[in-house]
Structure formats: structure tokens, C-alpha cells
Input
Amino acid sequence: MAVARLASPTSVSASGDDWVIDYEKTGDGGWCGTGGCTKELWVSREGRHILVFSEQVLDWRLTPGAPAVLDIDIHGVNCGATGSEPCLRRLVWNEARGRLDEAFNREGSGYLVGPLFQPIEPEPYPEAVATEIDRRMALCRQANGLVDAGEYPAVTSPDLNGDGRRDWIVGSPYTRCHSALDETIAMPALGVTVLVSVGDRWVTALNVQNPNYAVELRPSGPAEFGLRDENLCQDKPACPTRFYAWEPVTQTLRDSGEGHWHPRLIANSETWLDCLAAAKAVARRHATDWTDADLRLFAAHETETLKIYRRRYEESVPGLTRSAAGEREAVFASRYDEPQEQEAADWRSDRCVALP
Output
């Protein structure tokens, strides 16, 4: 098949000579799965084209600009949820780094569940990262075990100590040492190691056995590394998370004593549209399972809540165009139009009440 049938021009770099390759157009189902179909983004840089994105996506919206912004919907497992749950990510082109960097997504969330989604394979590894990967392999081999490395043994992370450089996280829930003979035989716990840049070197900022982590972006300053309490997590991003702060003197990530249940949100227009859809879904359910007196009381309360959400949507800056609002309202309504989706509606409606 001619490459021209798969490729379409776009504008990401300063030259604007950039290309999107859509493998869905091949008609070969091998390029597609429950996470959508593979798309690639090739960006012009220093006289050649480099690959900056190659993954399956359910939705793809690339907005040229300075910088260009890529909004994607990927498999829910990347958000610690099920495949049917939305997992929205926003990536912004960083011309200086020559890569796409994570940003708050279109619904205002910067909570990134580990193992962190990587737009391309995260190599080459710095020497310190490669050494840590080798150490883990040797530790497992010494116990006569085998290592399940997951998709990648290490991933690059948003800056965790405020020096403006990306850091590295080795290990994940999918990276473990297991016996080649009997799964009941105890093997070394590999956990997670966080390596942070300090000047021209890398330091081990944190070693923990709990492999269930998240990185949360902040409106300003470095991102935060957190450990998720998987025993209390649900099949959605909501999860108790204990955060760790960078300590410059000891050059470590220390327990900050701060934790919260839900990802923090920077509320925007789309946030309030989702709140409206979730609250309407909750109201529909209660309309059939409450007594008349209770229903009247609840309906009055729900009407006022919906008015608040509508007003906050109308006051949000920047706003959405009428066509964009209609499209997003339809997307949000579809999240809660089946009985089995009621739990998600309850969760999001509760979250919305606490939003500023």
C-alpha cells in the first residue's frame, strides 16, 4: 500500500513539515485493538523527521499552534481503570526537548497512573537507569527467578524535583520476579525506584516495594510522585494516593504526609459539562427508586445543583464553541447511559460537589 494513503500533513514543528501516519487506513486489523488503532507522528527536526508518537489511540485530536497540542483517548488501563472507562491525555510539543510532554488533559486532570504512558519507546536509557534495570535482573536471577518486564522496564517521568529536566521511574505493577517452576515460591519484590537528575548526575531518590504509583502534575512547580493504595482503589482513577516531596538536602523524595482520594482537577468548561451529565444520570436513577416525598426533596436539590453546574460552565474561560460543546455533551452523556455505568455517575457527581 502506498505510504501516501496512510499519511496526512500537519504542523507541529517550526517548519510545519510534519506528518501523521494512520495505520487504520491499511484495513489490517493487526494495527488495531481494544485501545484503538495505531497512529504515528513524525516531526521535522534538524533536517530530518523523527518519530515522536507511536501508539494505539481511541481518539486523536492534533491542534497546530505554538506549541501544538495533542489530545488523545487511550485504553482505560492507562488510567488504572477498565477498558470502557475514558482515559484522556494531553501532550504538548516541546520544541527545546524535541518531544511531547504531558499536560493537564482537556477535562482538567493531571493525574497520571503508573506505568506512565509513553508516546514512544523510552530509550536510550541513561547509564544510571540501565544499571538499575540490570541490578533488578541480577537480583531475580540469583533467586532462580524470571522477570516480567511489562511493556517497558523503565519510563521517563515529568520533572519531580523542579530542575526542569525529566526524571526516570524503574519498575511498575507489571514488573515482577516470579519462579519459573512454581508461582507459590516467594521471589524478591522489585518494587519501584525513582531516579532524579541532580546537576550532571542521577540520584536514587526513592526505593519502595509498593509498585502502584502515580505522578500528578501541578499548575506550577514540579510534578509529585505518589503511591496508590490499591486495596482501596476502584476501577477508575479515584484512589487514595500518598505523595512524596523532593528534599534538596538529602536529595530524596520523602513522605509529605499529604494524601487525597480523588485526582485534583483544574475545573474548566469540559469539567462542568461532565458534572452536568453525571448529575443528570444520578437524578434519572433516583426518579425510579425513591418515594414521592423523597423524590420531590431530591429533585429540588438536584435542580439547584444542575443550575450551579450550568452557571459555572457558562462562566468558564476559555469557553467552548457551540459545536464543540454539543459534541462533548454527547460524549459525556454516553458515559452514563447504561445501568452498569451508574457507579461511575455516582462517583463523578460526588466529585463535582467538592470542586471549587
Notes: The longest strand covers residues 36-45.
